[in-house]
Amino acid sequence: MSLVNLHQVHKYYGDLHVLKGIDLDIKAGEVVSIIGKSGSGKSTLLRCINGLEEYQQGGITVDGNEVTTEDIQVRRLALSVGMIFQNFNLFPHMTVGENIMLAPTIVLKKSKAEAEEIARAMLLKVGLEEKFDSYPEKLSGGQQQRVAIARALAMSPKVLLCDEITSALDPELVGEVLKVLEQLAKEGMTLVLVTHEMNFARDVGSKVVFMHQGKVWEEGDSKTLLSDPQTDELKQFIGAVL
Amino acid sequence: MLYFSDLLQYSDTFLSGLRTTVELTVLTTILGVALGTTCAAIRQYGNTVSQRVVASYVELIRNTPFIVQLFFIFFGLPAIGMKLSPWEASIIALTINLGAYSTEIIRAGLGSISKGQVEAAKVLGLTFRQTLFRIIFIPAFEKIYPALVSQCIIVMLGSAVISQISVADLTYAANLVQSRNFRAFESYLVTALLYLGLSIILRFVLDAIGKRLFAYRAIK
User: Fold this and answer.
1) Dihedral of the CA atoms B191, B192, B197, B203 (nearest 10)?
2) Which residues form the ABC transmembrane type-1 domain (chain B) (predicted)?
3) How far is B116 from chain A (nearest CA, A)?
4) I need a labelling partner for B128 at 20 to 30 A (CA). Which of B9, B29, B137, B166 fits?
C-alpha cells in the first residue's frame, strides 16, 4: 500500500511552471532519493508533500489523507510527516532537550515526564544523549542536524522528509548524519530525501527519482538506475556529480 | 548664592512627584510595549487591511508632537463625550506614544527571524499563536532589546510634559516649588538629577529583565 501518493501534481510560481505533472508512489519502508540539478523542482516537490508549498493541480495523499496548505491540514499532517531542513532550524533559545520536547508536549499533549523520556530516547538514537541540556549554538553542524532528526522523530512520524540535510555541513560532518539516516532506514522508517549524496542514494536508498525540468525524468531501483541510466540527461547528471 | 536648603521643606512635594512619575513609567512601559508588540505582529503577519490600520496609527503618532496628542486626548475628547481625568489621559497618551514607536522597533525584530524557524514550527504541528509566543518572540526581542530600552527611557523623560495638564509628576513638583520660593536653579537642577537617577535605574531594571529573558546567550 502506498504511504505517499502524488498524482499529476502541477505547481506554478506565477508564470513559472515548476512541477509539470508529477506522479510518484512511495510505499512504507522505502528510502527514496530525489536527485537532479538545482532548479529541477526537487525541493519544491518535497515541500508540497507536507503542505509547505501549494500546488495548483493534481492530488497528493499521505497515509490516505489529502494534503492541502490549510493550516489545520498542515498541522494534522505534522502528525504523520516529519521534516528536516538544510539549515537545521533548531530553536536557538531552547536547549536541545526543550527543542525535542516542545512538540510532544504542546501538540501531542504529553506530560513533561513522558516527553523527556521520548527526548532522551531519541537523543540516544542519534548518539547525543549527553547534549540534552546544551544550547544549539554550542553544537557542531553535524550535531545540530542530528538533534533536528531527533526532534522530528519524537513526533513518531510515518515518513521523514529530508531537504538537502547534509548540504550545509562541512564534508567531515556529513558521515555522522548519513549514519543516522542509514540506521533509520534499517529500522524501516520511510525516508524521502532530496540529496546530492549519490553513494548514499545507491547504497542505502531503495529507489531513486531523477527530476529534470519539473518532471520525473527517470525513476527506478537505486542500484540499477545509477549504474545503468537510460536517458542522456541522467547520464550527463551522473557524470557531472560523480 | 545658591540655597539648596530652601528645597528641604518641599521634599514631600518632590517625593510625591517622583512617585507619580515612577508609577506612570512602570504602567505605560508595560502597556506601551504590549501595544507595540501586538501592532508589530499585525504589521508583520496580519492581513492587508489590518496592516494599513496599524501603519496609519504609527505614522500619525510618530509625525505629530506628543504635547498635541496629550492636549487632544485631555482637552479635545470631552467634546465628543469622552471625559478623562488628567491621570487617565496621561496613561493613554504615553501608552499610544510608546506603542507607536515600539511597533516599528519590534517589527524589525520580528523581521529578523528566518522563515525556516516558522516552517520548522509549522511542520512540528504548532499553531501560529504557539509559534509566535514560543518560537518567534524571544529571539526577536533579543535582537532589538537595546533599542526598545532606549525608547522606554525616552518616553519616561517625555512624560514630563504631562505636568501641563496638572498631573502632579516630578516636573509639576519642580514648577510648584520654584513658583513658591523662586529657587529655579536649585529646583530644576535637583529635578534633572532625579530624572537622571530614574533613567539609570530604569535602564538597570530593563537590562536585568533582558538578562533573564535572553539567558540562553550567556550560557557557554
Assistant:
1) 130
2) 18-206
3) 6
4) B29
- Pairing of β A81-84 and β A65-66: unpaired
Residue of chain A whose alpha carbon sits nearest to that of B137: A93
Which residues, including other chains, have CB under 8 Å from residue A179's CB and lie 6 or more apart? none
C-alpha cell at position A202: 545507491
Whether chain A has a CB inside 8 Å of the CB on B81: the answer is no
- Is B4-212 in CATH node 3.40.50.1820? no
Going from the C-alpha of A3 to that of each of A63, A66, A192, A222, A235, the distances in angstroms are 5, 12, 11, 19, 30
CA distance B125 to chain A (A): 4
Distance to chain A for B213, nearest Cα, Å: 9
pLDDT tens across the length of chain A (242 residues)? 789 999 999 999 989 999 999 999 999 999 999 999 888 899 999 999 988 998 999 999 998 888 887 877 777 777 889 999 999 999 999 999 999 999 999 999 999 999 999 999 999 999 999 999 999 999 999 999 999 999 999 999 999 999 999 999 999 999 999 999 999 999 999 999 999 888 889 888 899 999 999 999 999 998 889 888 899 999 999 888 87
The domain locations on chain A are 2-80+161-241, 95-156
Domain extents in chain B: 4-212
Q: Which residues of A touch B116 (CB under 8 A)?
A: 85, 87, 89
Q: Is the dihedral of CA B200, B201, B207, B210 positive or negative?
A: negative
Burial class of A187 by CB neighbour count within 10 A (0 to 12, 13 to 18, 19+)? exposed
Which cell is B98 given? Answer: 510608546
The CA distance from B178 to B198, in Å, is 21
Q: Quick check: B112 contacting A, CB < 8 Å?
A: no
Q: Do A78 and B125 touch (CB under 8 A)?
A: yes
B133 Cβ under 8 Å from any chain A Cβ = no
Q: Check if B193 contacts A (Cβ < 8 Å).
A: no
**What is chain A's length?**
242
Superfamily for the A2-80+161-241 domain: P-loop containing nucleotide triphosphate hydrolases (3.40.50.300)
**Residue written as cell 505517499?**
A4
